[in-house]
Amino acid sequence: MKNCLFLLLLISNWTIAQTDWDTAPSDTVSLTTLESPIVINPRKTSLFERAWGPIGLGLVSIDLLRDSTKYGLQKIVRSVVADTFRTHLDDYIHYVPIITMYAADYFKVPAKNTVWNQTKYLIISEAVTSGIVWGLKVGLGIQRPNNGTYRAYPSGHTSQAFVQSQVLFNEFRETAPLLAASGFLFSASTGALRVLNDRHWVPDVL
Predict the structure, then answer these.
(1) Rounded to whole angstroms, how far apart are CA atoms 199 and 28?
(2) Which of 76, 103, 113, 206 shows its CA 20 to 30 Å from the CA of 2?
(3) CB distance 81 to 196 below 8 Å
(4) From CA 101, how far away is CA 167, in angstroms rounded?
(5) pTM of the model
(6) Which residues does the chain have with pLDDT short of 50?
């Protein structure tokens, strides 16, 4: 089972990484001398270098799904709010990275790709992520901490939020780094609120 989950996580991160690879030629620097042109290609990071972090977190989250661990983590995290705590904020803030990306385009902030390509990469990444998330939800059948449906792991809200944040980051990290990284603030907040709302276990949002 863990080998299958590892493969699914690898596919998901490969899809997001494509937003960099497909535009690699634009980063090529050409120097012309009197004798012959010299082309300098910047070092391209490998798939493993791009994906080891998310894959590692995914594997850790799988290990934390043991009942002896997830119940304890849930109690610790939710101890900061009342048992009746509920908010719908997490249903909306996970869209902020998308809104930020198109707002930046509207205000002419230089991006790595055209709006068309941004939209294309976003749709592909969202579609692949949705398929993987839904497959895991159905396949694993883990019940939500509030005794709700058996669709807890992984969190769809959090997964989509981080995919959108990664696309935003890829587009503006070289021209507006603070803007590019801002999406992760909302992604992390989405994950935290899903746990505080008792809709997900802590491992579900890692």
Answers:
(1) 46
(2) 76
(3) yes
(4) 9
(5) 0.74
(6) 1-40
